[in-house]
Amino acid sequence: MTKLLRRKELQTLLQQAEDEKFKLKRELTAADLTLLGIGATVGVGIFVLPGVMAAKVAGPAIVVSFLLSAIACIFAGLCYAEFASLAPVSGSAYTYSYVALGEIFAWIIGWDLLLEFGVSMSAVAVGWSGYVTNLLSDLGIHLPKILTNDIAHGGIINLPAIFIIALLGWILTRGIRESSNFSNIMVFIKLAVIILFIVLAAPHIKPQNWTPFAPYGWKNVITAAGLVFFAYGGFDAVSTASEETKNPQRNIPIGLVASLTIVATLYAIVCLVLTGVVNYKKLDNSAPVAYVLSLIGVKWGSVLVAIGAVVGITTVMMVMLLGTTRILFSLSRDGLLPPVFSKVHKTRRTPYVATIAVTIIGILLSGFLPIMTLAELCNIGALFAFMLTSISVLVLRIKRPDIKRPFKVPAVYVIAPLAALISFGLIVSLPKIAIIRFIVWLAIGLIIYFSYGIKHSVVQNSRNNS
Question: Which residues, by range, are in coiled-coil regions (predicted)?
């Protein structure tokens, strides 16, 4: 049991990050990280999920669902910010759990994060495919349904989703600065498109469309909060880039808090506009923002929004792909997975093998699974990560009050437990099948850990040799 709870020292983390064998380039600023956070979160959550969730689960009260999720995210975000300023290295919640709770918890959360980021990327790719297909259809180019949908929706393979993940995987192997510049440009386009939608659609709001406000009951509103949570999940990907950030103790907290605030505001406004312009029952559409503009007769606006959605959703996939590769890299560097995944390119200083591996997995998931199955899996992964990170902050405050913390969670003994409790509450509100699939995923992870990870762990072996 002592072995399982062995913790990694902060000094070891910092030394490991400077090891030339694993060293990544520090290129990102606070502005880059804010845009990275917005890029990771504003995508399917704003262009796809509000319509589906309003039509099937929450009605106009979907705005409340998004705000409930935002509260949990802001609390968890503060905990991430404290840890990121304390341990500015790759790994996000995995690294934080390693320092505070011990190796077995770190492995569980690392394995969980692979699920969260990897499945999020694939879910977003399916949403991207829907927008591309609709956009091309508006332009007179009709792709065969059999090649743009999963089996559950009358197809065989989703080729557009496969194409975009393969392209982004290639871009990420080129370098972190190149990837960031590409992402930043697309984020600005995405924000311009969202503002355009609000300006065009808001004058057509009919308040009677907000009645009944919660037609499926308030219990479903809470369930929807758990289901749409993955729309915010990308913000924690900001902390996976800690090892590639200039002055991370300052810039990571700024990037986390600023991006969350902007995103929560945008989600609430768009939900209100969507359900105010069109009756919620008509929003069961894979491209609801473009659909609403089309209904009110703004044809050119619909095409422009579709283009912006395609561009914007691309940034979400890129950040999710970045996050997955950095988690895989960290697990491998610590010996918990084979060393091949922590190989760094000699000149570009990117974990290129991990990037290729994650790209292949994303292609398989997005090419064959429906978006709702993917969304359920990544929601529970994100919530579990938030819960353990919040607990880890509290544990380390109690065990190591002496450590210098560049950023501190205010009222930590209130906010950290609340973040953990809200996350747990949203987990139990999810469909049972999602919880069962998650348990199966964790069981597979534990088999890998006890058959490989515990024997090759760098922390375990360094203790044995000392």
Answer: 7-34
148 by DSSP, 3-state: which?
strand
Residues of the chain short of pLDDT 50, as ranges, are none
Could you tell me which residues are beta bridge partners of residue 158?
Answer: 148
Single pTM value for the model: 0.72
Does a structural domain hold residue 143? yes
Give yes or no for a contact between 319 and 28, defined as CB atoms under 8 angstroms apart.
Answer: no
**Residues 443, 383 contacting (CB under 8 angstroms):** no
Give CA–CA dist 292/339, Å, rounded.
49
Within a domain: 377: yes
Three-state helix/strand/coil letters over 157-168: CEHHHHHHHHHH
Query: Per the domain annotation, does 14 fall within a domain?
Result: no
pLDDT digits (tens, 9 = 90+) for 5-35: 677 676 666 666 666 666 667 778 888 888 8
CA distance 102 to 449: 14
Can you give the length of the chain in residues?
Answer: 466
Helix or strand holding residue 311 (H, E): helix 299-333
Rounded CA separation 264/398 (Å) = 31
Is residue 28 helix, strand or coil? Answer: strand
